[in-house]
Amino acid sequence: MLSLFQTHAHDFLTGFGWTIASSVLALIGSLILGTVFALMEVVPNKAANIIGRIYIEVLRNIPLLVITMFFYVVIANVVKISGFAAGTLGLTLYTSAFIAETVRAGINAVPNGQLEGALSNGLSWWQGMRYVVLPQAFKLVIPPLGNQFINLIKNSSVLAFVAGMDLMYQANMISQETFDTFGPFIIVAIFYLILTMPMSYYMRYLENKLNKEG
Amino acid sequence: MSMIEFKDVEKYYGDFHALKDINLDVEAGETVVLLGPSGSGKSTLIRTVNGLEPVQEGQLIVNGQDLANPQTDMNRTRKNVGMVFQHFNLYANKTVLENIMLAPRLVLKRDEAENKKIAMELLERVGLADKADKMPSTLSGGQQQRIAIARSLAMKPKALLFDEPTSALDPEMVNDVLKIMREIAADSSMTMLVVTHEMGFAKQVADRVIFMADGQILEDSPTEEFFANPKEPRARQFLSQIIH
């Protein structure tokens, strides 16, 4: 297996790089989109609530692969789009629905008096959210958000289906080339663990820390 | 001049008729205490005055704006009408000083140095200048409530609403809060509407007493008259049940 890694180090590292790139982009994008749609669900405006609800329910209940294929096959007919871009977009939208649900749960867990205090102090609804409620909500949902991010990294393997150059894609390529079906996937699994394990431990650490703070 | 004026106001929670035919006029500078058994609609009424609860019918004119009109910008009213809550509602993610400085900074665009100066003066006034950098959760209920009052005053409001400000406090903390409220009431320009069960405070400070039951205003009398000779049988019964 070591020799397999040595002969294909460049491919594995390229895949590792694309997996990281896709994960980081999707993480930032889904955190922003997820927060926006969480706010749409709680803003005092019926139309926004409905749009937010539909977005979350639709994206949450379609397989990631279907969303990704939609970008790669359907959208690519209209706009030229690479496999990497299609995969990262699919991953972003899919994850954003789960993040929206998580953030919304956090907002709902902040006592209502916090927003009422802000409103009666003269702050607008948006200011109350931005400066008082959201900071508290994010602190509450750090552990579940961390789980979403770990899922996101693992789910980035969907890029392999759309020629996204990522770790999983490289593993497929190498196994087809070398007829070794075992080695490449073990190596790739180790790469994924390098990304997810520290995150997993960090989340556990944060969770303990927050529990102690009460 | 009226600061707060209810004209034939009705409020519903779904089918529940929470406020019935409310007519009430609070003049600028007046201190009015709302009394009544629990569930009588006192808190609901006071929460409508800064738009935390919408009303469905009638007119509710606060500082010249009709809050019964859904088009009204509630924020403009809230800038001028502060509120102190039973459970303080201090921002849990901000220090004491930041609690006081946040709204003047964001809403009034007050200069940062001046903002801090005013906040510190207010903390001195409520006797808690040494707690400026503490988080609210580390303070006692009475201290939190005094800071909540300072936070409201920092906006230099024309009116202050108090929704059972001492009900969640340990008995030994109550007097510190009432003392500050008395000082505010002594300021002739401040309009105060207070829901409380503190009869001593009501007798001493209120210009008028409003007695509510079942979502209605049953009596609206000058303070001395109300305590000496309540007109309504329900008010008489209520007073007799309160330990003086």
TrEMBL record, chain A:
Regions crossing the membrane: 20-43, 64-86, 182-202
Cited PROSITE patterns: ABC_TM1 (PS50928)
Keywords assigned: Amino-acid transport, Cell membrane, Membrane, Transmembrane, Transmembrane helix, Transport
One GO BP annotation of this record: amino acid transport
Domain ABC transmembrane type-1: 16-203
Cellular component annotations (GO), alphabetically ordered: ATP-binding cassette (ABC) transporter complex
Compartments reported by the entry: Cell membrane
Main location: membrane
Keyword Transferase: no
GO molecular function term, any single one: transmembrane transporter activity
The organism's place on the tree of life at top rank: Bacteria
Membrane topology classification: Multi-pass membrane protein
Pfam families the UniProt entry points to: BPD_transp_1
Similarity comment text for this entry: Belongs to the binding-protein-dependent transport system permease family.
Protein name: Amino acid ABC transporter permease
Species for this entry: Weissella cibaria
TrEMBL record, chain B:
Record-given protein name: GlnQ_3 protein
Keyword terms of this UniProt record: ATP-binding, Hydrolase, Nucleotide-binding, Transport
InterPro entries in the cross-refs: AAA+_ATPase (IPR003593), ABC_ATPase_HisP-typ (IPR030679), ABC_transporter-like_ATP-bd (IPR003439), ABC_transporter-like_CS (IPR017871), MetN_ABC_transporter-like (IPR050086), P-loop_NTPase (IPR027417)
Pfam families per the UniProt record, alphabetical: ABC_tran (PF00005)
Limits of the ABC transporter domain: 4-239
Family that this chain belongs to: Belongs to the ABC transporter superfamily.
Main EC class the enzyme belongs to: hydrolase
Single GO MF descriptor: ATP binding
SUPFAM superfamilies per record: P-loop containing nucleoside triphosphate hydrolases
EC number(s) stated in the UniProt entry for this protein: 3.6.3.-
